[in-house]
Specification:
The protein has 233 residues and is an alpha/beta fold. It has a 5-stranded mixed sheet with strand order 3-2-1-4-5, with helices on both faces. Strand 4, helix 7 and strand 5 form a beta-alpha-beta unit. Helix 6 packs across helix 7 and helix 8 packs across helix 9.
Length: 233
Amino acid sequence: MKTLDPGVARVLKRLHYPLEAILTCVRWYVAYPLSLRHLEEMMAERGIAVDHSTVHRWAIKPLPVLEKAFRRCKRAVGKSRRMDETYVKIRGEWRYLYRAVDKEGNTVDFLLRARRNKAATQRYFEKSIQQNGVPETVTIDKSGTNLAALHAVNAELDIPIKIRQFKYLNNVVDQDHRAIKRIIRPMFGFKDFRCARVILSGIEIMHMIAKGQMKHAGKIKPSAASQFYSLVT
């Protein structure tokens, strides 16, 4: 058996359930449109009695560590990117998930923010550049907020990013939002901003794995499940 990543081992050591059951539940939760009560029932069918609130803790504990592990083996993305934000309900209020994909549809990065304004958008671009490098071109919609944020980012760069504002060129990121929203829908809204951020990171990780954005050794591509489980070692 492979040795667990120290960070994963630390967060899982007090959960007192088989590792396989925990990781299976977490993967199902972020990969498919399932509620916590669905997972409680599915585990019961497999002879594992676990409350839905415990399943929620299983997800919250390891996902931040798994996100860090995934970023270390994420494939590079293209230099031409499409950026947009979508809405996520938290405690009955709409919050904003900033996301971008490259022209091939690969996820560049994501960031959940409480507000939709220049500061939030600029923070997204700064994080995206830090994690994925400076793009040559960014396509946005007609939002003046997004344009102002990009101008602020360009003011700090030696070679400015080319900005394109065409609504219909952003269809690729609009379509990609739908894959994330499909998983979120059965969750009936998040109760806490931090928990929403963690769960959304897991959904984004699994979505990127499904799109082939994780590096792997060998000629045969492992299944999406195998790639997800490999993040714990």
